[in-house]
Amino acid sequence: MFIYDTLLNRLKRGCETMAYPGGPAPALPDRHGGALRVEAAKCPVGCTACVAVCPTEAVTRLLPQPVALDLGRCIFCSECVQACPTGAITQTGDHRMAVGRREDLLLGVAGREQLRLTGALDDKLRRLFGRSLKLRQVSAGGCAACEADTNVLGTIGWDLGRFGIQFVASPRHADGLLITGPVTKNMELALKKTYAAVPEPKIVIAVGACAIAGGPFVGHPQVNPGAGALLPVDLFIPGCPPHPLTILDGLLRMLGRLEESGRNSQTNRNEP
Amino acid sequence: MSRTTPFALLTNSNALPWADVPEWPLPEFLRHVGVELDRGERLSSLFGVPEGAALRLVAVLAFDAGNTLAVARSQPFSGSFPSLTPTHSQAHLFEREIWEQHGAVPEHHPWLKAVRQDHGAGPAVGEFFRVDGREIHEVAVGPVHAGIIEPGHFRFQCAGEDVLHLEIALGFQHRGLEEALAGGPHRATVYQMETVAGDTTIAHATAYANVLEALAGTEAPLRAQWLRALALELERLANHTGDLGALAGDVAFLPTASACGKIRGDFLNLTALLCGNRFGRGLVRPGGCQRDGDADRLGKLRERLEIALAEVQQAAVWLWDAASVRTRFEHTGHLHATQAAEIGLVGPAARACGLVRDVRFDHPSGWFRFAQVPVSVWPDGDVFARARVRWLEIQRSGEFLREQLNAAPDGEMRSPLPALAPDTLAVALVEGWRGEVCHVALTDRAGRLRRYKITDPSFHNWTGLALALRGQAISDFPVCNKSFNLSYCGFDL
């Protein structure tokens, strides 16, 4: 009795969608590390240990100025965290990383130790998109990891549909683009055409280190340094790839659908 | 091995001095390669190495039955070379790539066009194979696809619903990986290797690590080899589970589609338990592994693995029990074993045509020298067979992990990597979840990388998808495509 078995099993399993954001956020893996925090005041004089190990030149220090970390370029390899002799760069374990302005990912100087999370869209856009946001996804040199962790939001565990967010099959149906990959030269034209085909008003979301700044391929002549080089970006979600929770947090935060805001609210992050 | 060959032989993940690689005049080189391919050997890689203004060709053949790899090179030449493709289809894309990368024209190549470069106009702009006739129509799809998928262009020649021919034009994902490796390894190299194909991070990173270790004349500590094998099978479990779910989704069988979408994530989270990243970034490094697991962590891994395996078992039972799935999977997207062998198909797609072909079995390296995984084969060559092989492999990988989690060798996780030997060639094959990942490295006089050639399994297998579509209804393209689930960026590099 095949069909009854299937139904019975489904009933037994119950609802598998997580409680978040109504309940606590699911735990990040304990070795994930989350967002980084930089306290340049702790930097020893003349030290560039972090700069020497960073694979994407996300960490820079023009002596005698303090160290600067660009979380947009960062692929979260944690080499700098390990190299730092004074603990000036640390992992916060925080999954929330989405920002609305590129410069909000630049960390370092006093008062800018951490990234500044995005606020919600303005009232007009929120009225339009707050309860129904249709996105067209364009992979433009993405390695399939950002794509996979965006895709996973559509599965039963995350169930993106409950927020009215959906990925659609045509730019004509879309309110905006979600871009992954550094935007290869070979995808430039296709991306521009897709953007042009989305009706106004429209938003652009850059997911992952590649889409924000070129990622591990920054400087290659075959790629652009991220989507921002070609299009106006409204939301930057760092990571390599960003954890699905980070992407979801960014989308909901932009739509003004998360109660808490700011840096210090409690999240449940410890691995069970 | 009983027969003789003029090629230099080496086993997987080993190196030999460049001077010891047999060197023949170009016509003789091509003749020798042809003779071995006629004997049924496999072309793992064929590429050019610039020599001043001239060019050499290097061939890496896999003697699967003999468990050895064979390499040879041509003397430097300029201009064109006679194409192997008309007689040996396996050379088809390799020769196009050589033409694109070095300008050497393979004469009488039947379909000479760019593989990835756009020459200013976009990769899919240019001539496509066309079928003419009053009843014929052409369908163009991509590069941007209707979903969260990488970009590529598909051009179908159709008579009504039936596909007469499919041509696949890629290159949209080209990030300049190989070009950037010259003079390396650089600081970003290992991170780029982890993103050759982001869903195959462990396989590509392991191949890279094996190549560098071979060039440095060392081997990773046993415990690191063990952990790499665990991570490789976890990668296979996650991707195969995702594929079963996606295949179920494409024939509108939602119970398995929903369940597998979630379970795939559970497997990815097991990799994240090891290294913090769901795709295994930061785990494998030349010289060993960057992370270790204590008994507590491995216990947790085992516990969660059992749950995920039980769940995927349930989801698979639903799938195989459903007559509606069976009728859609069977006889769809059929590929003959002879075609598969001719085009050099690899991985689950090849095993689903009945070919017994698996790097873990044929060319074991690392931990697979001590712990074997049976080769999973199904004879039919259709979507059903490709799904079935994945399911068999999920079970075998699950068994492997159960056994090996209890067999951890003690010791270090990482040892320092000595300097790379100068003027040396190394080859590493790894059976990624899509099939054979092949990395070949050649160092220069100073021990830096002079040429690095990456061959993702997708490079061999996209042709298989195109052939499987012939005579198929165009509406079956999605399920056929999913049954191969090939990498765009792994191909485009």
Please characterize this protein's 3D structure.
The complex is a heterodimer of chains A (272) and B (493). Chain A is an alpha/beta fold. Chain A has a domain at 123-254: Rossmann fold (3-Layer(aba) Sandwich), CATH 3.40.50.12280. Chain A is 23% helix and 13% strand. By secondary structure, chain B is of the alpha+beta class. Chain B has two domains: 8-107, NADH:ubiquinone oxidoreductase Nqo5 subunit (Beta Polymerase, domain 2); 177-492, Cytochrome-c3 Hydrogenase, chain B (Orthogonal Bundle). Classes of the chains: A alpha/beta (272), B alpha+beta (493). Chains A and B meet through α1, β6, α5 and α6 of A and α3, α4, α7 and α8 of B.
Helix content of chain A: 10-25%
**Greatest chain-chain interface?**
A-B, 65 and 61 residues
Low-confidence stretches of chain A: 261-272
By secondary-structure content and strand pairing, the structural class of chain B works out as alpha+beta
Distance between the termini of chain B: 35 Å
Q: How does CATH name the architecture of the domain at 123-254 in chain A?
A: 3-Layer(aba) Sandwich
Any key phrases for this structure?
heterodimer, A: 272 residues, alpha/beta, Rossmann fold, three-stranded antiparallel beta sheet, 10 strands, 23% helix, disordered C terminus, B: 493 residues, alpha+beta, Beta Polymerase, domain 2, Cytochrome-c3 Hydrogenase, chain B, 2 domains, five-stranded mixed beta sheet, four-stranded antiparallel beta sheet, 16 strands
